[in-house]
Amino acid sequence: MQYFTYFSRFISIIILLLTSSCNTQNKTEQQHINERHKGNVVITADINLRYILEQLASIYHTYYPDANISFKYTTEDDAVSNFKLKKNDIIAVEKLLSPDEIANAQFHHQAKVLENIFAYDAIAIISNKQNSDSIFILDKLENYLNDKSKKIVFDNKQSGIAKQLMQYSNTSAEAFKNAYAVNSVNEVLQFIEHNNDAIGFIPYNSFSNRNEKMAQQIRTQFNILPISYHDTMYTLSQESIAAQNYPLIRPIALYIGNCPELVAQGFANFIFGKQISKALLLSGLVPKNIPIREVIVTEEFHPNKK
Question: pLDDT tens digit string along 74-99?
Fold first, then answer.
């Protein structure tokens, strides 16, 4: 009987110690989670992602008011070049870094670079209503660039859009010297508006949200040209991006190098959550993680639909 009493006390002590250990562990884990959602971080980002990123940061701040995510906007080329040299710690761009670019960045950061692809955008090809082109033949981009009766215009001199088009169409860099380069998407729109022979290239996110006034104006005032690529025609829509059958899809990625601010990883984890996925769907884009039963929540966009 005395043995049973000692044994019962021993078991009780073990249970108490285990419970205390678990509580301490849970508190430690919760503290670590809380630390990842406090503090400030500046993300260097492609200027063409401004509307999307500001929206996502606003949602994050609603859930975690002790965090402050801000952005320094520049061109895609500058963001990537400076990241490779550790002149910035975290970037948001519409491209995937090559293995060489990642290796270069890891060498300078002295840390593993984390790639977080969280959404998909695309390149839209536009013209004004007086333009006679009803389709853009991607395989013949070099012909457009060399045709003096056409004006091809991009958002800036270091446009990531132009680089992607060069790769897809096997167009020589020399031919792009005939293109026009302005300073922003808005300036592309202004150029197209005043030049009947012009064709411009802008991010789909510029007009993907059907509820935004600016997006509605773009759809009303401009033609969104379908693409012919390898003898197949493709129309740009949220649905064609989700199905991955539009040729000029652009992944939106967050790259984190040797960044001391834990809130950077907290934000990176948050953008894969259900709240952000819904916001991306409502804005007309396609999240990497699509919520169950919510594959496409916006009305499909048709180029000729007002």
Answer: 999 999 999 999 999 999 999 999 99
